[in-house]
Amino acid sequence: MESIKLGLLGLGVVGGGTWNVLQRNAEEISRRAGRQLEVVQIAVRDLAKARARVGHDVVITDDAFAVVNNPEIDIVVELIGGVTLARQLVLQAIDQGKHVVTANKALLAQHGTEIFEAASAKGVMVAFEAAVGGGIPIIKAIREGLTANRIEWLAGIINGTTNYILSEMRSRGLTFDQALAQAQQLGYAEADPAADVLGHDAAQKLTLLASMAFGIPVQYSRAYIEGITDVQDQDIQIAERLGFRLKLLGITRRRADGIELRVHPTLIPSQSLLANVEDAMNAVLVNGDAVGQTLYYGKGAGEEPTASAVVADLVDVTRLHTADPGHRVPHLAFQPHSMADIPVLAIEQVRCGYYLRMTVSDQSGVLAQIAGELAKFDISIGSMIQEPADQGTATLIFLTHVAMERDINEAIGAIETMAIMRSKVTRLRVETF
Ligand code: HSE
Asked: From the candidates 98, 105, 205, 247, which is the catalytic residue?
């Protein structure tokens, strides 16, 4: 059978890895796909560098539109990142009747609805396994492996940079700034780490997972996003003594009144599997009503781990290239006409446990006053400890039972006005799954 023709947009980290895997494993891949996968054109910025890497059998251009408009090409592999140009290129490729494989979570989180609609109208596939969790086949699992289930919730460590930083803060006692500098030196963090440390990268991935888990539209703008820049090393150490570990989690949960969709630093029991996902590794825990909890673990970034996902998509698309579009796996797991418009809940409506740390004047009756204030908002205390503090003050840490975020906010507001307070209240969310 004739080879399927690929056009690559980008030959950077992921593009280069994809090229390597396609060359090295060509025979295995074609045995699986049923035909050869042949890269016929690559768009890059630096032509000489690309030529040195891929030789002379492939057409190289610095015009990405030449690739998406090339009538010979069946699948466009978008690996340039960014949103504006990538959106134009992907929509143009779809318009030209080409399938698209992309690793671009930002693009799909922001423009997924438009892109998937355009692809459905044209009867082409847009595959994006590499956009979430790098080499972990989490999209395959949710879209196909778990289709029997009503998915109740999922929680994931889906950003390796922040997981590395938090791991170093905990295990080596580093501050956030020290751990970030180390991550940058080792190449885990970008020179501009904002998208990672502010939680945006994780929220983009979570938005896509939530859409596939619950059959809801992609709604990145509704996600609650809190990164790790304000995490204090002392809370990591205190939490550890209390049997909890701090992770940047993406959590999405189905509730009777809507969907929780949130990324924030979260304390989880130190013994749990997720808590022991360390360094730059990723993992996603999915709870389905039939299967129970399943865990997916692996490298969430890097040249060949991400290429592994890109090439898996290429094989899938190749296998289904000639299938009736109506018989392919839907882009977002649910048939487009069966997507549900379940509301995404505001963060104030979220319910979880809370860790509250505060420094107070060390005098009689203080504890009773704070407990009384929490009780006014129906917040039940699970446990409390007192840590050593400066002369005349005490640091109190409360772990609450599950409460609503709005009530916690109001209780914190009231507590912070009390005369006995010597600090603001530090609040961390707690999940036990
Ligand atoms: N920068 C991401 C991370 C990988 O640190 O996990 C790409 O999404």
From this structure: 205
Cβ-proximal residues to 265 (8 Å cutoff; 6+ apart), any chain: 166, 226, 228, 231, 246, 247, 248, 249, 428, 429
136 lines ligand 1 (CB under 6 A): no
Query: Domain containing 16: what range?
Result: 4-134+303-338
Q: Burial-class residue 111 by CB neighbours within 10 Å (0-12, 13-18, 19+).
A: buried
- The reply to whether ligand 1 has any atom less than 6 angstroms from the CB of 159 is yes
Distance between CA atoms of 54 and 432, rounded to whole angstroms? 49
Q: Is the pTM of this model over 0.70?
A: yes
Query: Ligand 1: which of 14, 79, 157, 159 to mutate, most ligand atoms within 8 Å of CB?
Result: 159
Question: Residue 163 Cα, ligand 1 centroid: separation in angstroms?
Answer: 10
Residue 389 sits in a domain whose CATH number is 3.30.70.260
Q: Is 133 in the pocket of ligand 1 (CB under 6 A)?
A: no
**HEC readout, 240-265:** HHCCEEEEEEEEEEEECCEEEEEEEE
Ligand 1 atom having least distance to the Cα of 105? 8
Asked if residues 134 and 298 have their Cβ atoms less than 8 Å apart, the reply is: yes
Domain identity same for 185 and 242: yes
Instruction: Per residue of the chain (433 residues), give pLDDT as tens.
Output: 899 999 999 999 999 999 999 999 999 999 999 999 999 999 999 999 999 999 999 999 999 999 999 999 999 999 999 999 999 999 999 999 999 999 999 999 999 999 999 999 999 999 999 999 999 999 999 999 999 999 999 999 999 999 999 999 999 999 999 999 999 999 888 778 999 999 999 999 999 999 999 999 999 999 999 999 999 999 999 999 999 999 999 999 999 999 999 999 999 999 999 999 999 999 999 999 999 999 999 999 999 999 999 999 999 999 999 999 999 999 999 999 999 999 999 999 999 999 999 999 999 999 999 999 999 999 999 999 998 788 899 999 999 999 999 999 999 999 999 999 999 999 999 999 9
CATH number at residue 165: 3.30.360.10
> Is residue 201 within 6 Å of ligand 1 at its C-beta?
yes
Residue 204 CB–ligand 1 contact under 6 Å: no
424 is catalytic: no
